[in-house]
Automatic annotation (TrEMBL), chain A:
Keywords: Membrane, Transmembrane, Transmembrane helix
Protein name: Gaa1-like protein
Cellular component GO terms held in the UniProt record: GPI-anchor transamidase complex
PANTHER family per record: GLYCOSYLPHOSPHATIDYLINOSITOL ANCHOR ATTACHMENT 1 PROTEIN
UniProt organism field: Suillus placidus
BP GO annotations: attachment of GPI anchor to protein
Signal peptide: none
Transmembrane parts of this sequence: 38-58, 392-422, 464-484, 496-517, 537-565, 577-596, 608-632
Record flagged with keyword Lipoprotein: no
Domain of life: Eukaryota
UniProtKB/TrEMBL annotation, chain B:
Lineage: Eukaryota, Fungi, Dikarya, Basidiomycota, Agaricomycotina
Spans through the membrane: 152-172, 193-213, 247-265, 272-291, 311-330
Family: Belongs to the PIGU family.
Name of the protein: PIG-U-domain-containing protein
Membrane topology reported for the UniProt record: Multi-pass membrane protein
Keywords, in A-Z order: Endoplasmic reticulum, GPI-anchor biosynthesis, Membrane, Transmembrane, Transmembrane helix
Length: 635, 397
C-alpha cells in the first residue's frame, strides 16, 4: 500500500513532459524521414501477398458449420426407373431441338409436362428493353406444395435453355433432369418446403425476369405480368447444367452478381453428398485437379505447353498452378461483378444458390448419379430451420476441399491502400512547407544549387479549392461518359463513338486546365494538393471496396496503387506528355482496347443491374485522370 | 424519426395511447404540433434548417462583435468560397450558414424528415439568443431543447455562462471568468420555470398521464430500443447480460455529464467554445445518435475561424468521417438487406464514426487551448541535420 502511495505521490520530474514531447517528435520525424521506405515496403508486401494467395499454406480445409444440414446421411430412392423417365424426356427434347421450336412453343411444352404430373404450372412472358433493342422470352415453372408445412419457405431447382458451356450448347439433359425430378419428388411426403421447378429461357435474362417477378422488384425496363403461382420465401436453389453426353466430375460455380457469394455450407454439403452419395468427385468450375487430369487433353493441363517438363511434373507446382487457375477464374468473375452461371442471379434476393455443371467426358456418370445427388442435396436443404448463416460468405475457394478465410486475403489489398494513404498524407504535410533561401546565402554564390539545409522552412497555406474543382470536374466528366456509353447512339455506332469518346476525354482536361485559377505563388501548388487528395480518395475507395468485392479491390490496388503514387510533375514537356498519355490509356483505354468487354458490361448494367460499368466510369477512371492532371500541372 | 412521428399520429387518430407499447418516443408537444397545428410536411424541415443556418450566422456575427443588422454584402462571396464543407473545414471559413445547409450529415437527416433537425435548430437558437444577450428567449429555447432531448442539458451551463459574460472570442487571451456568478441561481430558476411549464403543458396534452415521461425521456436513459444507429450505445447493450444493464446505463449516462465541469472550467474565458465542445461530446457519445449530432459539431467549426490554423490533424478527421460516411450505409446493407454480414460489421462502422467524432473533438480541444500559447517563432536554422527532421521540429513547435 505504501509503495503504491509512494508511486502515486512521487515527485514529478520537471523534464518529463518535455522528454515525452521530444520522444513523440522524434518518432514523427523518424516516420516522415522514412516515409518512402515505409510505403515501398507496404506496396511490396501487399503485392507479394496477392501472388501468394494461391499457395496451399494460406488455405484451410472446408467444413460443415450448420449442424442441421446432415449432408449425405439419407438413403436415396432415385433409381433406374427414374433414369428411364429422364431418357424419355431427353428423347422428346431432342425432337424439339430438331423441329426448331420457338420460345413460346418450348415453354408451352414444359408447362404441359409439368401439368401432366399434377403440379401447378404456368408460363411467364417477359420483355427487356435495352439500348441495343428488346429481348423477350418465356419461362416455364411449376410449384410443388410441401406436404408437411404451410409453404412459407421454398427451394428451387432450375435449368436454363442454354448451357454455361457456351458455343450455343443446349442444356437438354439438365432440363430432362428437372422434368424427371419433378415426377419423382412429388411422390414423397417428406418435403417440409415447397419445391419450385423453373425452366428458364435463354441463359441469364430468363431467370432474371422470373426472379424479379417473383420478388415484386420489376425494374422499369422489364415488362412482365405478375406470376400466376407463387410460394414462400426461397432459401436455397440448385441450378443444373448438363449439356454433354456424360460427365466425370460435377463442377460447382458459385459467383453471383456484384461479387456476392453463397454461404459456403451449401458448397461443402454438396461436395460431401456428391462424393459419398453419388460417387462423383466435385471440382471448382470445370478445372480438373492435377491428379485427375493425367489422362486429359493437353489444353486442360494446368500449365501451357512451353513450360519445361520438370516444372510440369512437380506436384507442388502443379498444385500451385491449379490453384492459380481457380483464383484467377474467381477474380475474373467477381471483379467484373459477373455471375458465373444462372445461380448468380439469385444471391441478390438472399437465396443461396450454386450451379452444378456436369464436366463433359466420355463417362462414367449420367442421370443416375446426378439424380441421386440432387435428391440428397434437396433432403439436406430440406433440413434447414433457418437460412444458411453459420458458415462463410466471404471466401475464396482455392480447391474443392480448401478455401481461404477473409483474413488470409483481405490484408493484401488493405496494405496497398494503406501505403497510398500514407503517401497522400505525406504529400499533404510536404505541401504545407516551403524552403526559403535567405538573401545572404543566395548572393554568396549564385551558382550553387539551393539546398534545403541553407534555407528557412516556412509554413504555407494549402487552399484546396482548385484541387477540389478538378476532382469534382473529373467525376462529372465520368458521369457524362457513362450516360453516353449507355445511350442508343453508342449501341448503334460503337466502333466510331468509342475512339471519339476516348479522344475527347483525353483532350478536354489539357484544354480546360488553363481556365482553372491556380493557387497564389506563396500558397502550396495545386498539383501537390491534388495528388494528396487523389491518393487519399483512391485509398478510401480501395479499402471500402475490399469488403464488398475483394477481387475488384485487388484489381484497383494493382491498377491504381503504384501509378497514382508515382504521379509527379516533370519539367520536360516530352515526359509530361508521355506520362499524361499513359494515364489516359490506363483510365479510358478500355474504350478502345476491349470493345467486347464494354458491350458486355453495359448489357450487364442495363439488364442485370451489375454496377461494374458505372463504377469504372464514375469512380475509377476519374481517379486515374486526376493523377494524369497532376502530371500536366507542372508544365 | 418521421416514421415514428407518423406512427404516433396514427395511434392518436385511432384513439390509442401512443405511449403504450414502445412505438412512439417523442414528446407530446411534438405530437400535438403535428396533429393539430401543421401536418408533418417536408417544408417544415426546410424551414427549420433555414432558421438553423440563420441562427448560426447570427452567432457568428455576435462572436465577431458585428451588429446583427449590418449589411450582408459579403454573403454572396462567402457562399462561393464556402460552398464545399470540407474546404470550409480546412480553410478559413468566414461565414457559417452554408456549412450548415450543405453539410451532408445535416442535409440527409432533413431529407429523411428526422426530428433531430428540430433539436439542432433549437440548440442553435438557444446559443444565438445567449450570444446576443437575450436572457429569456435563450432560456426558453434551451428548455425546449432539453424537453425534446434530455441530453441537451449538457449545454445549459455554458449557455448560462455566455449569458453572463460575452460570446466574443477570448481563446487567445485566457482570463478568469468575469461574469456575475450571483445571477446564476436566478437564471437557472428561470430555466426551471420554463421547463416546468413545458412539462405541465405536455402532461395536459397527454391527458394528465405520465406515460410519456417514461416513453420519451426514459428512452435515452433506459435504452429500451436497441435498433442500430451510428452511436456507440446499442451494441454494448445488445451484448450485455441483463444484470449488468442498470450499472452500465448509469455509467454511460454519467459519462456524458462528467464532461460539463472540466470543459466549462478550462474554457471559462470563452463559454461559447465550451458549448461547441459539449456539442461535440453529444455528437460522439449520445444515446440514439443520429447523423445530425456530429453534423452540428462539424458545422459549428466554421464559427471559430481563429482556431483553424491550430488544428493538428484536420485531414485525418476528414478521412475518418469520409470512411465512416461510406461504411455506415454499406455495412448496414451487408447486414440487414443482403444477410452476408452481421451486427459486428455495422458496429465496426459505428466505431469508425466514434473515432471520427473523437478525433474532431480532441483536435478542437487542443486547438482551443493551443491558440493561447501563441506562435513560437523558432528558426529552423539551429537544427539542420536533414530536411524531414527540420520540418517536424517546426510542426511540433
Amino acid at each position: 500500500m505504501d509503495r503504491i502511495r509512494g508511486f502515486l505521490m512521487r515527485p514529478r520530474r520537471p523534464g518529463a513532459n518535455v522528454a515525452r514531447l521530444r520522444r513523440r517528435k522524434q518518432l514523427a520525424a523518424y516516420l516522415h524521414r522514412n516515409l518512402t521506405k515505409l510505403t515501398s515496403a507496404l506496396f511490396i508486401i501487399g503485392y507479394a501477398w496477392m501472388l501468394l494467395i494461391p499457395i496451399p499454406l494460406l488455405s484451410r480445409g472446408t467444413y460443415i458449420d450448420e449442424n442441421a444440414l446432415q449432408p449425405a446421411q439419407v438413403n436415396t430412392y432415385w433409381n433406374w426407373g427414374n433414369v428411364h423417365t429422364a431418357d424419355l424426356q431427353l428423347y422428346q427434347l431432342d425432337g424439339i431441338r430438331e423441329r426448331n421450336f420457338t420460345s413460346e412453343q418450348r415453354a408451352e411444352f414444359f408447362r404441359t409436362e409439368f401439368s401432366k404430373l399434377g403440379l401447378a404450372a404456368s408460363i411467364q412472358n417477359y420483355t427487356f428493353s435495352t439500348s441495343k433493342g428488346t429481348i423477350s422470352g418465356n419461362n416455364a415453372y411449376a410449384v410443388m406444395s410441401s406436404p408437411r408445412a404451410a409453404g412459407t419457405e421454398a427451394m428451387v431447382i432450375s435449368a436454363s435453355w442454354l448451357s454455361t458451356a457456351g458455343h450455343g450448347a443446349l442444356n437438354l439433359r439438365g432440363i430432362s433432369t428437372v422434368l424427371s425430378l419433378a415426377a419423382f419428388l412429388k411422390d414423397y411426403s417428406l418435403w417440409a418446403k415447397d419445391i419450385i421447378f423453373i425452366i428458364s429461357d435463354d441463359y441469364l435474362h430468363g431467370m432474371h425476369a422470373w426472379l424479379n417477378a417473383y420478388h415484386g422488384t420489376i425494374p422499369s425496363n422489364l415488362h412482365t405480368d405478375p406470376l400466376e403461382h407463387t410460394s414462400g420465401v426461397i432459401w436455397t436453389a440448385l441450378n443444373i447444367d448438363y449439356s454433354s453426353h456424360s460427365f466425370s466430375h460435377l463442377g460447382v460455380f458459385h459467383e453471383g452478381l456484384n461479387g456476392r457469394l453463397p454461404n459456403q455450407d451449401l458448397i461443402n454439403s454438396f461436395r460431401l453428398i456428391s462424393h459419398y452419395t453419388g460417387g462423383v468427385p466435385m471440382t471448382v468450375y470445370d478445372h480438373l485437379e492435377p491428379s485427375d487430369a493425367v489422362d486429359r487433353l493437353p489444353e486442360q493441363s494446368v500449365f501451357p505447353s512451353w513450360v519445361p517438363p520438370f516444372i510440369q511434373q512437380s506436384p507442388q507446382l502443379q498444385q500451385y498452378g491449379y490453384r492459380v487457375r481457380n483464383v484467377i477464374r474467381h477474380i475474373g468473375y467477381q471483379a467484373r461483378g459477373m455471375c458465373s452461371g444462372v445461380h448468380g442471379l439469385m444471391h441478390q434476393f438472399r437465396i443461396d444458390a450454386i450451379t452444378l455443371f456436369a464436366v463433359p467426358a466420355d463417362g462414367p456418370h449420367g442421370f443416375h448419379a446426378l439424380g441421386k445427388i440432387v435428391e440428397s442435396t434437396l433432403r439436406t436443404m430440406n433440413n434447414l430451420l433457418e437460412r444458411l448463416h453459420a458458415s462463410f460468405f466471404f471466401y475464396i475457394l482455392t480447391s474443392p476441399g480448401t478455401f481461404m478465410k477473409i483474413g488470409m486475403f483481405l490484408p493484401s489489398a488493405i496494405l496497398v491502400s494503406v501505403a497510398m494513404l500514407f503517401k497522400g498524407l505525406g504529400e499533404w504535410v510536404t505541401a504545407g512547407w516551403v524552403c526559403e533561401m535567405s538573401e545572404a546565402s543566395l548572393k554568396g554564390n549564385e551558382t550553387e544549387k539551393p539546398s534545403p539545409a541553407k534555407g528557412t522552412w516556412r509554413n504555407r497555406r494549402r487552399p484546396l479549392l482548385s484541387a477540389l474543382i478538378v476532382v469534382v470536374a473529373t467525376h462529372v466528366l465520368g458521369v457524362l461518359v457513362f450516360n453516353l456509353i449507355c445511350s442508343r447512339w453508342f449501341a448503334k455506332y460503337p466502333s466510331f463513338l468509342a475512339p471519339a469518346i476516348f479522344v475527347a476525354v483525353s483532350v478536354i482536361p489539357p484544354i480546360l486546365l488553363p481556365l482553372l485559377s491556380t493557387n497564389a505563388p506563396e500558397a502550396a501548388p495545386t498539383s501537390m494538393l491534388l495528388k494528396s487528395s487523389n491518393l487519399c480518395l483512391a485509398s478510401t475507395v480501395i479499402s471500402i471496396m475490399s469488403l464488398l468485392n475483394f477481387s475488384l479491390a485487388a484489381m484497383l490496388a494493382i491498377t491504381m496503387g503504384v501509378p497514382l503514387a508515382t504521379s509527379y510533375t516533370s519539367s520536360s514537356t516530352m515526359t509530361t506528355h508521355l506520362r499524361y498519355a499513359g494515364y489516359c490509356m490506363l483510365a479510358w483505354g478500355w474504350l478502345v482496347l476491349v470493345p467486347g468487354e464494354v458491350e458486355s458490361a453495359i448489357w450487364n448494367w442495363e439488364v442485370l443491374g451489375v454496377w461494374f460499368a458505372p463504377f469504372i466510369c464514375i469512380v475509377y477512371a476519374p481517379l486515374v485522370m486526376q493523377a494524369a492532371i497532376v502530371c500536366l500541372q507542372g508544365s | 424519426m418521421s416514421i415514428l412521428v407518423n406512427e404516433g399520429l396514427w395511434l392518436l387518430d385511432n384513439n390509442i395511447d401512443p405511449y403504450v407499447g414502445g412505438a412512439f418516443r417523442h414528446s407530446p408537444l411534438l405530437l400535438s404540433l403535428f396533429s393539430t397545428i401543421v401536418p408533418p410536411l417536408p417544408i417544415i424541415w426546410a424551414l427549420s434548417d433555414a432558421v438553423g443556418a440563420w441562427a448560426l450566422l447570427r452567432i457568428w456575427r455576435a462572436r465577431q462583435g458585428l451588429s446583427s443588422l449590418k449589411g450582408t454584402g459579403s454573403d454572396v462571396e462567402n457562399l462561393i468560397v464556402s460552398v464545399y464543407v470540407p474546404s470550409a473545414y480546412f480553410e478559413y471559413a468566414p461565414n457559417a450558414p452554408h456549412s450548415y445547409l450543405l453539410n451532408p450529415y445535416l442535409l440527409l437527416p432533413s431529407l429523411a424528415l428526422s426530428t433531430s433537425t428540430f433539436e439542432n435548430t433549437l440548440t442553435l437558437l438557444a446559443l444565438m439568443f445567449a450570444s446576443e444577450g437575450k436572457v429569456s428567449p435563450a432560456l426558453l429555447a434551451i428548455a425546449f431543447a432539453v424537453h425534446l432531448t434530455p441530453s441537451s442539458i449538457l449545454l445549459l451551463l455554458p449557455i448560462l455562462m455566455v449569458l453572463l459574460s460575452s460570446p466574443v472570442s477570448h481563446l487567445a487571451s485566457p482570463r478568469p471568468f468575469h461574469g456575475n456568478l450571483k445571477r446564476i441561481p436566478f437564471l437557472f430558476g428561470e430555466f426551471t420555470l420554463y421547463w416546468l411549464v413545458l412539462v405541465g403543458a405536455a402532461c395536459i396534452i397527454a391527458g394528465g398521464s405520465w406515460n410519456w415521461v417514461r416513453a420519451s425521456w426514459g428512452a435515452s436513459l433506459m435504452l429500451p430500443d436497441l435498433t442500430p444507429n451510428p452511436g456507440l450505445w446499442w451494441y454494448f447493450f445488445t451484448e450485455m447480460f441483463d444484470h449488468f444493464r442498470p450499472f452500465f446505463l448509469m455509467v454511460f449516462s454519467v459519462h456524458l455529464v462528467i464532461y460539463i465541469l472540466p470543459i466549462c472550467i478550462k474554457f471559462q474565458h470563452d463559454p461559447l467554445y465550451a458549448a461547441f465542445l459539449l456539442v461535440g461530446v453529444l455528437g460522439t457519445f449520445k444515446a440514439y445518435l443520429t447523423l445530425a449530432d456530429p453534423g452540428l459539431f462539424l458545422s459549428m467549426i466554421s464559427l471559430f475561424p481563429e482556431v483553424h490554423g491550430y488544428l493538428r490533424h484536420p485531414i485525418i478527421t476528414t478521412l475518418l468521417h469520409l470512411h465512416a460516411a461510406l461504411l455506415l450505409p454499406l455495412q448496414h446493407v451487408l447486414w440487414v438487406s443482403e444477410g452476408r454480414g452481421n451486427a459486428n460489421f455495422y458496429y465496426a462502422a459505428s466505431l469508425v464514426m466514434g473515432m471520427a467524432g473523437g478525433a474532431g473533438l480532441v483536435d478542437a480541444c487542443w486547438a482551443g487551448m493551443r491558440i493561447a500559447v501563441g506562435d513560437a517563432k523558432v528558426g529552423a536554422e539551429e537544427k539542420v541535420e536533414g530536411k524531414g527532421k527540420v520540418m517536424w521540429e517546426v510542426v511540433q513547435q
